[in-house]
Automatic annotation (TrEMBL):
Gene3D superfamilies: 1.10.287.3240. This is V-type proton ATPase subunit D. Keywords: Ion transport, Transport. Pfam families: ATP-synt_D (PF01813). NCBIfam families: V_ATPase_subD. GO terms for molecular function: proton-transporting ATPase activity, rotational mechanism. Belongs to the V-ATPase D subunit family. InterPro entries: V_ATPase_D (IPR002699).
Length: 266
């Protein structure tokens, strides 16, 4: 009963058998390709996971160093450092751009940090911030926070790629399992069913041909017997006309003559 439910409702013909075999070949190739894709995505997924763990470990140290550098800058330059920095900043010098990376047919978003070359003048003016007091600590604080931004951008890129790969792997594995446990068994059971029906039809045709041959043989024998009886009837009529006896007596003479011939032959 389970085999019946695992096959398609199709007409058992030779053409449909060829179609089912072609679909089975395609499903087998698709299963192999999706399996390779799943393996490649899993390898990339594990590599990204290692990079995420490494980035998070380094992020804690970098964020601690940047917070400590900010504390040192406030101590060296005073509490009004915030107003000094804001006065010298006109636009962001460190920016983020996105691109896509293709991994086994899956497009992973990648984020990259870069420094805008058109903001070189503002950068040079930022180098003079805190010239009167605590300038070195302010620049150290800026460098520490730029490094923290770089790590955060890298971590954001890894996390986004991680989520995208996780969803792609789940989708691919669902397709692999569907092909392996549903599509391929259903096609195989359908092919077995069509082959069985075709064999049954072949046996029925063979039996039908044997019956037809037997019927034709009996018909030929009946026709031969009828023609022989007709010939004997004609001979009996000729004998009865020639000798002036009844047809029954003529038949008896033919039968007696036939028996004598058989005795002589014996």
């Amino acid at each position: 009963m389970s085999g019946q439910s695992q096959r398609l409702n199709v007409v058992p013909t030779v053409t449909m058998l060829g179609v089912m075999k072609a679909r089975l070949i395609g499903a087998t190739r698709g299963h192999a390709l999706l399996k390779k894709k799943s393996d490649a995505l899993t390898v990339q997924f594990r590599q990204i996971l290692k990079n995420i763990v490494s980035a998070k470990e380094s992020m804690g140290e970098i964020m601690r160093a940047s917070s400590f550098a900010l504390t040192e800058a406030k101590y060296a330059a005073g509490d009004n450092i915030k107003h000094i920095v804001l006065e010298n900043v006109r636009s962001a010098s460190v920016r983020v751009r996105s691109r896509q990376e293709n991994v086994a047919g899956v497009k992973l978003p990648k984020f990259e940090h870069y420094t805008d070359s058109s903001l070189a003048d503002s950068k040079s003016s930022n180098d003079l911030t805190g010239l009167a007091r605590g300038g070195q600590q302010i620049q150290a604080c800026r460098a520490a926070h730029v490094k923290a931004i770089e790590v955060l951008v890298e971590l954001a890129s890894l996390q986004t790629s991680f989520l995208t790969l996780d969803e792609a792997i789940k989708t691919t594995n669902r397709r692999v399992n569907a092909l392996e446990n549903v599509v391929k068994p259903r096609l195989e059971n359908t092919i077995i069913y069509i082959k069985g029906e075709l064999d049954e039809l072949e046996r029925e045709d063979f039996f039908r041909l044997k019956k037809i041959q037997g019927f034709k043989k009996r018909e030929v024998e009946r026709q031969m017997r009828a023609s022989r009886e007709f010939a004997e009837e004609q001979v009996a009529e000729n004998i009865s006309l020639q000798k002036g006896i009844s047809i029954g007596a003529a038949h008896n003479m033919l039968v007696a003559g036939g028996e004598r011939d058989e005795d002589i032959i014996f």
